[in-house]
Amino acid sequence: MNKGQRLLKQAKKILPGGNQLLSKRAEMFAPNLWPTYFLKAKGCEIWDLENKKYLDFAGMGVTACLLGYANEYVNKKVKLAIDKANLTTLNSEDEIKLAKKLINIHRWAEMVKFCKSGGEACLVAIRLARSYIDKQNIAFCGYHGWHDWYLSANLNNTGNLDKQLLPGLKALGVNKNFAKTMFPFFYNDISSLKKILVKKNNIGIIIMEPMKFSKPKKNFLKKVRSLANKNNLILIFDEITSGFHNNYGGLHLTLGVNPDLAIFGKAMGNGYPISAIIGKKKIMNKANETFISSTMWTEQIGFVAANATLEFFKKA
């Protein structure tokens, strides 16, 4: 048993599950063999606690580090920012710079709101959408975080998330009043979305990943957009795992369909915590009417890292 596995045994005694992310748990890959902990990483190489070097084919930080680990350009900018202070009573100008970059890339969007993680960005997007529209229930396709609004899908049917995320997910701790608020549909199956809307499930919001494991077929995304327009629904594209991976910006730019809101995270900061919601002003401005606020969302390292990452992408 390697050092990482021995340390994992200790971790499980004081950390539920042994760590903070399901996707990084050793038992999902090679139990009793997976190195689990890293000593250092650079580019696409990573060293375990025994200083054994590996090539990382496991997703580069769960797809967050597209520029490679410890990218010199991004790290240099971050180190300069740290020396100036990462969090103060005042705001960081890099927040505005990053917002302008995202709006310039996505010309349909008018405003931006920042968070630190993808899951909370999804939560904010749903709050904004529900603040704007009367119908509160949600049609969803794909994975959109761990929060109650999403996991509540399994209150109505314990298998609703089986083909969206993982089988057997329990909605333990989720308020049972959220039952029958979430309705799954399936990618490239427009009929599955139509069935939800026909049954008058009080749907006001569609949230989906613009592309899953295959490209949209038979104008699938355009048909989703058309249904949203016809039924006065808010369409949200969750680009946390697709944004900046295949093109400069959201994948929806390549696919030719614009949402009302879009969510980014992961690769935007090359491993530094940053996420964003972009969208139409009439919806985004609801953040001034419903309370959405966090001290750490104003911390500037994420803004600096994202600006540097986007600059690097642009030059590449």
H/E series:
HEEEHHEHEHHEHEHEHEEHH
Radius of gyration: 20 Å
Number of domains: 2
Q: Which descriptor suits the 3D outline?
A: globular
Q: What is the number of helices? A: 11
CATH superfamily of the largest domain: Type I PLP-dependent aspartate aminotransferase-like (Major domain)
Beta-strand percentage range = 5-15%
Largest sheet: 7 strands, mixed
End-to-end distance: 42 Å
CATH architectural label of the largest domain: 3-Layer(aba) Sandwich
CATH fold category name of the largest domain: Aspartate Aminotransferase, domain 2
Mean pLDDT: 95
Beta strands, count: 10
Report the top-level CATH class of the largest domain: Alpha Beta
Strand order of the largest sheet: 4-10-9-8-7-5-6
Helix-strand category: alpha/beta
Helix content: 25-40%
Point out poorly predicted stretches: none
Quick summary:
By secondary structure, the chain is of the alpha/beta class. Helices cover 33% and strands 14% of the residues. The strands form 2 sheets. The protein has a 7-stranded mixed β-sheet with strand order 4-10-9-8-7-5-6, with helices on both faces.
Features:
three-stranded antiparallel sheet; 33% helix; 10 strands; globular; 316 residues; Aspartate Aminotransferase, domain 2; alpha/beta
